[in-house]
Amino acid sequence: MRYRNLIFLLTFILGGILSWLLVNDMAKQDRDRKTVKDISTPAKINSVQPKSNRKDSQIDLSDLSNALQAIPGERIVQFSSKESYQDFLKKLGNSRVRLLGKIDQLYALRLGFDKLSDLNGLELDPDDLAFNYPVFIPSAPPIEDQGGVVGFDRTALEYLGISVDNSTWGHGVTIAVVDTGIEPHLALNKSILSINLAELEDGVSPHSHGTSVASLIAGNHPNLMGVAPGADLISIRVADQNGSSSSFLLAQGIMEASLNGAQIINISMGSNHNSPIINNAIQFAIENGAVIVASPGNDGLSEAASPARHPDVISVGAVDALGQHLNFSHTDENLSASAPGLQITAAYPGDKITEFSGTSASAPFFSGAIAAVMSESNSPISAQEAVDILLATTNEAGAPGADAVYGNGILDVGRAINRNTAGITDLAVAAHQYILPSENQDNPGLQISVENRGTEAVWGSTLAVSIDGGQYPVQMNVLQPNERKVITLPIGFSQFEQEGLLEVQSTITLSGNQADMKESNNQRTEQITHPKNGL
Q1: 485 in any annotated domain
Q2: pTM
Q3: Which residues are known catalytic residues?
Q4: Model confidence over 193-208: pLDDT tens digits?
């Protein structure tokens, strides 16, 4: 009896596999997502590159996994030439396969079908076919899971170094918000070009997400100012009322942004999967002079969502008002920078405000900063040149240099805007970390990062480091503007090993008649936790 049951089970499994090979269609998946709150990312990320349908009968588990996670009954096809693209469009009219969308510039089509046999009957090259994956606005981040964090409320601009009237910043720069659409709001300019690519159910309003994102970029109200209020916005709706979209719609949105003259494209949404159609749209936009800024995700993973993981996209992680990395913010070796992302006051449809959190917030701050640097520069510069300036003037955080947690550092719009203003003296104790002895570490000990955030060279400053009552002075030589210096002291190891914690305070003092314009960052107190504690 036991063997009979085993044979029955094996027969059932084999039958399921054969059915998949014959039909090769995608299993039904729930397309109805719970409405996402207007606090900002995609679910678990898989870095598997989508593959075309296989010509043989060998089972590829990655193909099966991709098929199960893709939108059922749809494929994307991209042709290699205009002629083949046009010929297929003529042929499609006599088929049961439905045309759901097209991008002429990429020779790309979105196809829908009820039976895979109908699609196969068109005899498409499998190498031209790809799955159409779900794309979502970020999910609400689990803020309560991280203790000791501090939200921004209305202080984000001050944190970014914006202390002057910025109402005209961004003038002459066009920014596309590829999202859920921008709804009218008293904090936003009325002249917003709207392009709607995603359909909504009858009688429902668009999701609020896009309106909140837009206000952080270009809010223009005394109580709700964005970074670049003078910028021109393009609203491109690629997601429905639940914040759900697809690879094809996102690619279509990027294309529309570029074709309508956007110099900056903000994408505060993402996908679990890489997609050839999105990559091609990104390449098209970049070749036409645009830069793309995207949110990496809110699930605490070690890889950014797509398109933020694309090497040519600016990906922006999230920090709190103390400059602490927020644990929900995805890390990534290609992370560009970090920006405010916790409890930020933003616009909500109906002339209301909301509390907005997540990497959906950090990305638009960087988009607005690009526009501000472009408009406030003495001579015309491109969006990419503005990005380079912003990355060169970020504030050091975390491990020395660029890292997967903070990227190149924390966005500082004031530093970027004032980069050519003479007479700014500003030394900062930027970060602490402890390097444990190992075979790969030639210089273990306490590392203190000091940074010159001003525009003048600083000579002869003194760094005083305090650990457990002990004082360790270090004489500093000259630090040039934007220079970062790392001092390593072989101290505190025994206490660190025994107690698992190290309380450190470092203070930088300028010499002679030099006066620091921002004394608040001259001192840093930090509690470093030993890796053995699992933090």
Answers
A1: yes
A2: 0.87
A3: 179, 209, 360
A4: 999 999 999 989 999 9
